Amino acid sequence: MPESFEVSMAGDEKYYVPDQSYKEQAWTKDYAQSYKEFLADKTGFWENQAQQLEWFKKWDKVLEWNYPYAKWFVNAKLNITHNCLDRHVNNHRRNKVALVWRGEEGEERIFTYKKLFHEVCRFANGLKKLGVTKGDRVCIYMPLVPEQVIAMLACARIGAVHSVVFGGFGVNALNMRINDAEAKIVITADVTIRRGKTIPLKTIVEEAIINSPSVEKVVVLSREVDQPVELHKELEIDYYELMEGVSAECTPEVMDAEDPLFILYTSGSTGTPKGIVHTCGGYMVGTYYTTLNVFDVKDNDVYWCTADTGWITGHSYVVYGPFAVGATVVLAEAVPDYPDAGAFWKIVEDLGITIFYTAPTTIRMFMRVGEEWPNKYDLSSLRILGSVGEPLNPEAFEWYYRVIGKNHCPVVDTWWQTETGMQMITTMIGEPMRPGFAGKSLPGVVADVVDKRGAPVAPGNGGFLVMRDPWPAMLRTVYKNDERYKTYWNTIPGCYMAGDLAVKGKDGNIMIIGRADDIIITAGHNIGTAEVESALVSHQAVAEAAVIGKPDPLKGNLIKAFVILRVGFQPSEKLKSDLIYHVRMTLGPIAMPSEIEFMDKLPKTRSGKIMRRVLKAKEMGIDPGDVSTLEE
Ligand code: WTA
Fold it and tell me: What is the number of structural domains in the chain?
C-alpha cells in the first residue's frame, strides 16, 4: 500500500455553477446547512429520513454501532416492497406510470404502480408455490426486462434473498455465484437481445447448474423471439405458467430491519467473488434518501438510469430507490449505438426523460461519435444528469454538461460502491461543480482521504478514501465470509476503507483517482485481476498468468494478460484467440482480455507474489517505483 501522496493541481480550479433556480426548488436547498444539521445530530438526521417511510413497527434505537458491526433501525419491522408499491397504490400514485420498458426496436411496455404491484404479488405467489420461503436464496440471471425487476421485488415481498447475476457473466462466474449463495431457485430467460441478435441465457444456466446441488427449480421466461423454448419439465418451469391461477394480492412478509434483502457479488482481490450482503431497513432508507435528494426527484420526473439491474446501480437506482420515492422509471434493454448512435437520445426525446444517469465510459463513447447524434434530438426535457462507476474526467464532464445538458443541467458525479449500497459523495444539485472532482460527502455521510495510519491528508494531497462513520445502507457482511468483511474496517484504523485512491482538494471536494487494489474497472464493470488470471490458468496451455488494467481513453481500462505457457505449447495468434475465447466462456464477455502477451517469466517478489505494478509500469513506459522486493 503506498503512503499518501502529493499532487499538483496546476491552478486548474474551474467551477461550473448551475442556474440557482435548481437550488430554490430542490429537496436539499442548502448543502452546507444540511450537512451542519447532520453533524449536529447524526442519528437524528437518519431518523428524520426514516420517518418519511412506512414501517410495520418503528425502531427502538436508530443505530447500534459495535465496531465494525452496525445495526440500523433496531427491531423495526418493514417490507421494502410495501414502501415501493403499496404505499403508492394506496395513495395518489395508484395510476401513475411506475415502469416504462423499451426494447432495442422501440417496443414499449408500460406498468402503472397498480399493475406493477399486482405483477409482483402474482410472481411472489408463484415463488411460494415452488416452496420459496423467507431467507431462501434465489438467483436471478435475466435480461433487462420488466420481469427481472418483478422477480427482484417478488423475492423481497416474501423475504427471499435475491442474488442477481448480470446477464453478461459466463458459465463459471454464474456457477460460482449460485453455489456460494446456495440458491434454491434460478430465474432466467431463454435469451437476451443485444444489437439485434439473440444470446442464449438458459443454455448457460443449464451448464452452470450441473454441479449445483442446491438448485431445485429453474424458472424460465420465454421471450420466444426466435422459437418457442423447450423446457425440461422435471427441472424447469415457465415464468407465466407459474403465475397461472394465483392471487394478485400477496401479504408482504414482515421483515426485521436487519434481515437480509439481497446478496450481490462483486470482485475482490482473490479469485472468488464476494457476496455483499444488504439488509432491509437501512438499505431502504439510504436508497430512498439519496434518490430523492441527489436526483431531486419530483412527481412529474421521468427518470432513466441506463445501468443493468445486475449491478448495484441497477439495484439501488433502477429498482429500490426510485420506486421507494414513487418515480416513473424507464428501463431500456438497449445499447447506446444500436441501431445507431442516436439510440439513447431517441429514448430521451420520445419519453421526455428529465433525469438521466449513466456511466463515464458511455459518455466517452458518445463524445467519440460526435455531437451531431445528440443534436438530432430534442433533449430539452432533461433537467438533471448523473454519472457513476469511474472517474468522470474533466473533458467528459464538460462535454456532458455542454452537449447533453445544454449548459444548464446540474451534473451529479456520484461516487459509491456495491458495498456502500447508496451514493456517498457528490455535488448536490445547485452547488458549484468542479470537473474531475466527484464532490463532497452527502449529508449523512462522513468521507475522508487519509494516509495508511488513518490520519487525514492535508488539503491538496492524496491518499486512501475512507468512511469514518457507519451509514444505513452499508454492507453488513460478506456472505459466509465475515473475515473478508472485517478487512474493510481493519485495514486502516477506525475507518471503512473503500479501496480507492483519492485527492482532497483545498476546497473540500474529493477527486477519485481509481482503485488502490487489484480490481480493474473496464467499461464501468469491476473485474478482479485474480478472476481473469484463474480463468486463464484453467486453460490447458497456461502455466501462469498476470493481468493488469491498461488505461484506455474510452473504456477507462482494458484488460491485458501476460501469460506463461506450459511446456509443449507454442505462442501463436491462434492460441491468443483461444485464450480470449476461453475467458469469454468461463467468465463472460465483460471479462475478456483485449490483449495477451506471452512471457517467459513474470516479475515476482521473493516470496513469489506477482508484481502487477511492475508489469503495468513497463506497459505504460513509466517508472515502476520501488522494486527492491523483486526477485533476481
Ligand atoms: C468506482 C458502482 C470515480 C470506484 C456504484 C468504486 C467511481 C467502484 C465512481 C465501485 C465515481 C464508482 N467516480 N470512481 N463517481 N463511482 N466508482 O461496486 O473505484 O460496481 O470503488 O459500484 O467504482 O464499483 P461498484
Answer: 3
